[in-house]
Amino acid sequence: xxxxxxxFLAAGMLPLLARAQHADDSGNVRQLMRYQDSLVAISxxxxxxxxxxxxxNANVELIKTLVKALKxxxxxxxxxxxxKAVRVLxxxxxxxxxxxxxxxxxxxxxxxxxxxxxxxxxxxVMFPLNDYTPYIKNAxxxxxxxxxxxxxxxYQIIPVYAxxxxxxxxxxxxxxxxxxxxxVIDVITFRNDKPVFGHxxxxxxxxxxxxxxxxxxxxxxxxxxYIPDEHLIVFDHLVPPDKxxxxxxxxxxxxxxxxxxxFKDGRWEYVDNLDMRNKPNSHDGExxxxxxxREIDKATSGN
Length: 303
Known about the structure:
By secondary structure, the protein is of the alpha+beta class. Helices cover 25% and strands 34% of the residues.
C-alpha cells in the first residue's frame, strides 16, 4: 500500500485521484437529491390522498424509493432534510440513524413504518421495522426486535453511555385511534449488531418498565420532552376529568402539573410534581399529527 501511495505521489496522480473521488461523491449526492425530490412528492400523497388505497399505494412507492436511495454509496451522510413526513434521527455518536413514518387508515388508526440504517460506509446495512403493535399485549414489559416493533414516529434521541454498553432513549408520537393518541419513551440497544427495543431502565411506583407508554384524548396535546441540562425527561401528568372515568383514556388530558424521569447511575428514576416554571414547554411542537398536517396542507394550497 505504501509503495502504491509513493507511486501515485511520484507520478503526480494524487490530485487526480482526489478529484475523481470528489466527482464520484458529487454524482452520489446528485442522485440522492433526485431521490429526495421523489420522496417529498410521494410523502405528500401519503399524507394528503383522500382514499386509503391511494395512501397505501403511496406508502409502497415510498418504501421502494427510500431503499433505492439508501443503496447509493455513502447515503448515510445525506440528511434528507427536505423530507418532512419521514422523521430521520441520527444517533449523536453517528453509529446509526432511524427513519420512521406512519400510514393513516380511514377508521382513524395508524400503521407505522421505518428502518434502522447502520453507518457502515459504502455497503448498506439496514433493519426494516415491522409494526407489531396489535400483538403486543404488555408494551411496558416487552422486549422486541425490529421484526416485532412497537411502532411510533420518533422525534428525539437521547444517548446513554452506560458502563456495560450504550443505549439510546427514543421519544415518539403514536397516533392510536380516532379517539386517542399515545406517546412513548422507548429504548434501542444493539445485541450481536442487531437492534433491540425495550430495556429495563425505568424505575418508579414500585415497578421497573422496559418502556413507558402514555395514552390520552386526541383532543389534547401532551408534552414529552428531554431537558439535557437537567438530564430529565419531562411530561404532562395525565388525568381524567372525573375519578369515575379512571381507565377511560379517551378523556385523559394534562392537568397542568408535570412528572418526569431523571437520569441517575445509568437508569431513569421517576419523579413527580416537577417545578416547570421557566422551562422549555412546547406542546406537540416536535411532531405534527398527520390529521392536522392534512388540514394545514389543504389550507395553504388554497383548496
